[in-house]
């Protein structure tokens, strides 16, 4: 089964507002709505990894059965993207995870299909920049064990985890891998 994960639990400090709930007038949608619609086109089930501040607003946006808003497990809460990935992966052993950060509004479903054609990969643009939070992973006991170890030993860099798990890049178009950490006017 293909499980979609949208990472929307970050603090968005530099952006100065919640990225998930950012209403982007270029698309006439919130970034999380763009991400959910993109994932629903591909995944059997979609999880939005939220934080305490945005979870209720996200639940109101997505009452449907195929979209689940969840908080990180209590023992790993606040430990970054790996905690959101682990929270979902723990409940979906032996499934495939299609992971996207919420702040990639230009990413296309076709590019995610390209990722899904390869096991254990992440996005890289044509200039060689890695985009670790756009990935396709095959969950197994080994991966779950390494995720758990990374989280409980505070080894929280996604890049380090991917290197340890031998997860490789797949090149996607630069135009789709544009994001922003600063307010958009």
List the topology elements.
Elements: E1 2-7, E2 23-24, E3 29-30, H1 31-40, E4 45-49, H2 55-61, E5 67-70, H3 81-91, E6 96-101, H4 109-116, E7 121-124, E8 130-138, H5 141-152, H6 158-164, E9 168-171
Parallel strand pairs: 1-4, 1-6, 4-5, 7-9
Antiparallel strand pairs: 2-3, 6-8, 7-8
Record keyword descriptors for this entry:
185 residues; alpha/beta; Spore Coat Polysaccharide Biosynthesis Protein SpsA, Chain A; 6 helices; 9 strands; 30% helix
The total count of strands amounts to 9
Largest beta sheet: strand ordering: 5-4-1-6-8-7-9
Number of helices: 6
Return the string of H and E elements.
Answer: EEEHEHEHEHEEHHE
CATH homology superfamily name: Spore Coat Polysaccharide Biosynthesis Protein SpsA, Chain A
Structural notes for this entry:
It is a single chain. The protein has 185 residues and is an alpha/beta fold. The protein is built from 6 helices and 9 strands, in the order E-E-E-H-E-H-E-H-E-H-E-E-H-H-E. Strand 7 and strand 8 (130-138) form a beta hairpin. Helix 3 packs antiparallel against helix 5. It is globular and about 40 Å long. The model has no long low-confidence stretch (mean pLDDT 92).
